[in-house]
Design brief:
This protein is an alpha+beta fold. The chain contains 3 helices and 3 strands. The radius of gyration is 30 Å and the shape is rod-shaped.
Length: about 110
Amino acid sequence: MSDTNVSRLALLRFLEEVQRRDLERTRRWIAAEEQREAERQRGMQARPPVPDWLLERGLNARSAPVYVHVGGCWNAGKRSEGVSREQALHALAEGVPACSHCRPDTELGYVDG
């Protein structure tokens, strides 16, 4: 470096400017991430509660139910709808099978009779 015309002070000022820009960019990234997290939190709070019981329907939305699930069952299909305890019990009594994974019949205290 001793043979160049650029002073050490000029190089340090250049480094300072590069680091200032990097810091500004990092702060923008942090602000954007904080905004995404705030939006995610608002979405979680606005989400309706998971129903206690689900009826899963077949391919046709008007078709008969194919399974009864406990609300939040990992195996419930996309065509599931929340129902009341009484509706879930009625469906089991009508012969709709209970999900073999979440066992809503056990949760409901349903005894096939």
